[in-house]
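Hi R.,

As promised, here are both runs. First protein below:
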Amino acid sequence: MFNYGDVLDLPLIWGGLIALSVFIYVLLDGFDLGCGILFPFAGSDKNRSRIMNSIAPFWDGNETWLVLGGGGLFAAFPVAYGIIMTGLYLPVTAMLFGLIMRGMAFEFRFKASSRRHIWDTCFFVGSVVAAFSQGIMLGALVQGLEASNRLYTGGPFDWFTPFAIVCGFAMIIGYALLGSTWLIIKTEHTLQVWARKVSGWMLSALVVAMIVVTGFMYFSDINALEGWFKFPSLLYLAPMPIIVLLLFFLMRKDLKTEREYRPFLLTVVLFLMGYIGVCFAMFPYIVPYQMTIYEAAAADTSLSFMLVGAVIMLPIILSYTAFAYYTFKGKSDHNPMY
């Protein structure tokens, strides 16, 4: 039987597929979580309905990428999955509860009358909890998990650090920016004007948050910085601060014009810059800074078998996602969709 491991770097390929799935999830579910974070501040019930309708056709499909990333980690790197899920059990649980609250709000809000405020609160709180939990998990991973003999050896609250908390707030700001720029595309008139103003505030807040997180990493002596200042990583990462500044000024300019799509696309590039920095900091570790992708990978035969399925299913998922966004293009209104 032919073994793809003889000609392909299967752990690297699967690490790349999982990283891609996580990034797509962050972008797609990020903007609908961001809409939930901004939800209470929209000014009227009709505006809140428009916000919810702008993401109603997409929110559950967006979470497919979370399942794909988690399932891929479990199948391709089972040891890493066990360590990471054990170390981050509480924030993962909090994130899932937040996503459940959001799902309930989608199903019940438009059917409620006198108690609609309950589901509005669930939608907002669930969005904030999910976003904050994801930021905490990212911060805990960048800071590193304690592991020995292929088992998690830290405590249940090791993830609860000042750096992880800062990352949690930074994630809320980033998702709010994604959500506000998404609303520029999907809304019009006064709600779109409001979304432009919020985008300007969140853009400035995100740049400040990125500086604070980077400074925190430097003064906390987090191992991730070693990956940034080594060659050839330094050559690739050196232009990124300049690119971020250019994106900042270009987006500030766009928010004062009638452009609708480019602010969202520029926000995506901002997220990409940050994500590239995280990947360079952690590579080749999948359990920072304890276990590499090669040490944690499943057998080549398993990775080869699963790769065939991934090659078949990924284009199907991407095609379905593109079709959904094409079908539900255009502006949203306040009429019930559920």
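And here is the second one, sequence first, then its structure tokens:
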Amino acid sequence: MSDIKKFMYINTKAPYGTIYAWESLEVVLIGAAFEQEVSMAFIGDGVYQIAKGQDTSDLGVKNFSPTYSALGDYDVNKIYVEKESLEARGLTLDDLLGLKYEDEDDDWAEKDSIRVVSSTELAEILEQQEVVFSF
């Protein structure tokens, strides 16, 4: 029996204005560094966390969105985005960061990490997790 557990981190908040998005990303990277099976979901305003073209200069805070590109290096390659949340905000997959990982089982081919799923599909994925954190 494996000691590796399935951890899902659900992101529901906009990227700036609170500490939730940044703390979630930090916790995800730490968990992945300890070889846990880590996945992420972006729901509601959380979809803005991985939107392209973030400019925080008027907010006076550091733009941490480039850090999401490191997820693939930590084997975090199951990133789920709720379709209904994207649609409600007028966004599509093309509006999101191009998050990739290298698949060692496929001769290190570069593959997309983001999967757009319906709320029903996401509920099924969540049922398969052992630990769920919500930020």
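A quick note on the second one: The beta strands are 6-11, 37-42, 79-82, 100-103, 109-112, 114-117, 131-134. Let me know what you think.

Best,
J.
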